[in-house]
Design goal:
heterodimer, A: 696 residues, alpha+beta, 8-stranded antiparallel β-sheet, 16 helices, 29% helix, 24% strand, globular, B: 132 residues, Nonspecific Lipid-transfer Protein, Chain A, 20% helix
């Protein structure tokens, strides 16, 4: 995967970031290295031939886990061709393997000194990000032709072992080879770089690392080829859509993360900083991908259930029944300088867990999962009222329990300035953002369905439905800003309405908590120039005091946000508006070469022929990767009633015809077709669209 | 770092863990290995854990530095992830079962006192060391 001057390959939470020559030279501004489990195991890896760094000819991304670099040794003049070709072929696993080949194209023999400089700083990802100093001891060992780079701090010990298939000189700072090449001959060696967890426990073998990643590696489940073959087949008359779809599937495959504690893989959040299990991100990405890869949802649900909160732990923001937010495996987590073991500071993850569970069961018919996780579901529902509602006012709100390490904002807009009044004033905590109430409502409605249909508890189902109805009534009263005709972004710590106009109101349509008349007003705001940039709905309207088109959550456009909004618009029957968002975002995706970034600038489309990149956006990022999948679902109006596939297309003219073949679900495999015709604006009730037809 | 704090509204601290949720789904034998020796095997069957003779096949083994650490972990005083990252804990065999079992213990599943060291139990296992 190439971005700017960097090339990244990855597999689960292992990734290698280098420059385009394949060299790694970590500096405060270059985040190069081999990273595994949130630790940088290699920070320097530089190839020289006769003391010179080869120049780049090309870098080929063969697959997300494999890359090859074609290099040559410069002659110093454009009039003399290089006679040396150098190829570095690199594959990632729990380390990486690099096959280095040098070819002498000359008619004369040549003797070369080939050298690979190696070093590691064993930085925790947060140390890299926050520029923190190490507290332990670095060491080196040379033994049996292997170079070991190590780090220890009490029982925390990590090593990088570097070995070569060809004999060479191994020193503490790298490996060197004297190479004699006859004319038209080549020399090669395989370099293994293995990342090792060293444990003090007797009888415990070091963790095996450095296996070559190949397409048959079993622990990732399906190989890339099988993964692609197993996904529904897309036939689209708008040619870029096929490329966008395939890019999403490949990126989703790359982001698959096998935890080892549950079968299968779930989506990690994003490269480079978020190659970890995240509650919210994994849940939303799984939701987006559900019609295409339902197994991701099952693994996400089972994994998050395993780590469901059990007690009140202020450091980790843990509470009984709460779904975790983030699990990290680096040194700062090990020494509890960061709370990610796991950290529970997200107020939405628990409701999203319930929402995905019902959606998954309804789509796949896998009632066994719901039966297996009934206790966890009940605990999660209990969390909503017992702990999510911190002050007993009937709304879910959040406030971090540890001021030093906890997250200030525990909703998806988790940057410090995201929850602000229209005049730009930051809202004091605790904050009850509007979408949290929508999620709570939706979660209870969905759990009522499972309680009645799977768990055989109609009494609880009725109670949940009463609670949901009451919440909807109160919410439409307490969050509505009559003078501006939209829902407040939040209620702040003083129960004041935080009156900024934001994209959060779009999530309320997904949840179904908004009254129809109020939804209509919100739709008008969402599609107005203030919120809709022409590329997508901005996180914050251009009219608001905090608006910044390149502010992380205060003006940028987020693809996942738009995918949820577009899906929500469909629920309320706003097909044309939904299609407009889908079309704009897919056109943006095309201009981003098929891969939507985490976020991009909120500048008006009429001013920019291309969407403006956000400087530090993650790419690929799981829920941005999943967004085109949810756009496809939205365009075709795909839903399940628990038995049949429902297809209710609303496709704008430029997108022509869309066919999705072999959609998996409780019906087995089914095809869905749609073609452009004038979309209607007739409202349809949520999740049972009027005029919907069963699939062919 | 774990501690107590008012749960909400300044009410009394809530430190007692909730009852084990998935305990009724747990079934299998978990070996506890300290210093290379299996010091106990816990049998999980339905809602509780029973100490069994430290012999025979296990579904998973917990390798841990000391019995004291195991007891701290079972009481919820030692975080599983932290212990694993610091080299003091490793799980082998059916890791998912091991994590569920340990979490159930941490959540208050009753278990009798643990036995004396004995010969290592045979583990029907595949290699796995935490993390990924």
């Amino acid at each position: 995967m190439s971005a700017g001057n960097e090339v990244s390959i990855l597999d689960g939470n292992t990734f290698v970031v280098s420059d385009r020559r394949g060299d790694m030279d970590a500096t405060p501004t270059e985040n190069h290295g081999l990273f595994l489990n949130d630790t940088r195991f290699l920070s320097r890896w530089i190839l020289t031939v006769d003391g010179l760094r080869p120049t780049l000819l090309s870098a080929d991304d063969l697959a997300y886990f494999r890359v090859q670099f074609f290099l040559a040794l410069a002659t110093g003049t454009i009039y003399v061709d290089s006679h040396l070709s150098i190829v570095r072929r690199r594959s990632v696993c729990d380390g990486f393997r690099e096959d280095l080949e040098i070819v002498n194209h000359d008619r004369q023999p040549v003797t070369l000194r080939v050298r690979l400089e190696a070093a590691s700083d064993f930085a925790d990802l947060f140390e890299v990000k926050d520029k923190l100093a190490k507290k332990g001891e670095l060491y080196h060992e040379v033994e049996n032709g292997h170079l070991t780079l190590g780090y220890r701090r009490e029982g925390f010990r990590r090593e990088t072992i570097i070995s070569s298939s060809m004999p060479g000189e191994v020193r503490e700072d790298g490996l060197s080879f004297e190479v004699y090449l006859e004319p038209q001959s080549s020399w090669s060696t395989s370099l293994d770089v293995s990342a090792i967890f060293v444990r003090a426990i007797r009888d415990q073998k070091p963790r095996p690392c450095g296996r070559l990643r190949d397409e048959e590696q079993p622990e990732l489940g399906r190989s890339l080829a099988t993964w692609l073959d197993g996904a529904p087949r897309l036939v689209a008359s708008w040619e870029p859509l096929g490329h966008i779809y395939k890019r999403s599937l490949i990126d989703l495959a790359a982001l698959r993360f096998a935890t080892g504690v549950t079968p299968g893989a779930l989506p990690a959040a994003g490269l480079p900083w978020f190659m970890a299990v995240f509650g919210r991100d994994s849940l939303i990405a799984s939701f987006q991908a559900l019609p295409f890869a339902p197994e991701l949802s099952a693994t996400t649900l089972r994994t998050l259930a395993l780590f469901q909160g059990q007690k009140v732990d202020p450091f980790r923001d843990e509470e009984p029944g709460k779904i975790m937010h983030e699990l990290r495996l680096g040194e700062l987590t090990a020494f509890e300088e960061r709370p990610h073991s796991p950290y529970y500071g997200a107020a939405d993850g628990t409701m999203l867990f319930l929402i995905l569970m019902e959606e998954y069961v309804r789509w796949t018919g896998d009632r066994a999962l719901a039966r297996d996780l009934e206790a966890e579901a009940r605990a999660a529902v209990a969390w909503i009222d017992e702990y999510g509602d911190r002050d007993g006012d009937g709304y879910v709100e959040y406030e971090r329990r540890d001021a030093e390490t906890g997250l200030d904002n525990q909703c998806w807009k988790d940057s410090w300035d995201s929850i602000a009044f229209a005049d730009g004033t930051i809202a004091p905590t605790p904050r009850a953002t509007c979408e949290l109430q929508g999620y709570a409502y939706d979660a209870k409605v969905r759990m009522a369905r499972l309680a009645r249909e799977v768990w055989g508890d109609p009494g609880w189902a009725a109670a949940l439905e009463r609670q949901a109805a009451d919440l909807k009534l109160r919410f439409n009263r307490d969050f509505w800003i009559a003078e501006r005709s939209f829902f407040a972004l939040a209620l702040d710590g003083k129960k004041r309405k935080v009156d900024a106009l934001t994209s959060n109101i779009g999530h309320l349509l997904w949840s179904g908590i908004a009254d129809d008349d109020k939804a209509r007003s919100c739709v008008q705001h969402l599609m107005s120039d203030d919120l809709f940039s022409g590329w997508g709905v901005r996180t914050m309207a251009a009219t608001e005091g905090s608006y910044n088109p390149i502010g992380y959550h205060v003006g940028t456009v987020w693809p996942h946000d738009n995918s949820i909004i577009a899906w929500g618009l469909r629920h309320y029957g706003y097909k044309a508006e939904s299609a407009m968002i889908c079309r704009a975002m897919l056109e943006a995706a095309n201009l981003f070469r098929g891969r939507l970034p985490e976020a991009f600038g909120g500048y008006p489309r009429r001013e920019t022929h291309y969407p403006v990149e956000y400087p530090t956006a993650c790419s690929p990022q799981a829920w941005a990767t999943g967004a085109p999948l949810l756009f496809l679902r939205t365009l075709l109006g795909l839903d399940s009633d628990g038995r049949h596939l429902i297809v209710d297309p609303a496709i704008p003219e430029p997108l022509g015809q869309i066919e999705l073949l072999d959609l998996p679900g409780c019906w087995g495999l089914m095809d869905a077709f749609g073609r452009a015709r004038e979309a209607t604006r007739e409202p349809t009730p949520p999740r049972t669209p009027a005029g919907a037809s069963e699939a062919s | 770092m774990e501690g107590t704090e008012p749960a909400k509204n300044g009410a009394a601290p809530t430190v007692a863990p909730t009852p084990p949720r998935s305990a009724n789904q747990l079934s299998g034998r978990l070996g506890i290995v300290v210093d290379g020796k299996t010091i106990a095997v816990l049998g999980f069957d339905g809602g509780g854990a029973t100490q069994l003779p430290a012999e025979g096949e296990t579904r998973a083994n917990v390798f841990i530095t000391s019995m004291d650490d195991f007891q701290r972990m079972a009481r919820g005083e030692l975080n599983l992830v932290v212990a694993s990252l610091r080299g003091g804990l490793s799980l082998r065999g059916d890791v998912g079962f091991a994590v569920r079992a340990l979490r159930a213990l941490q959540a208050g599943m009753p278990v009798q006192g643990l036995g004396e060291p004995s010969a290592p139990a045979k583990t029907k296992e595949t290699d796995h060391v935490g993390g990924k």
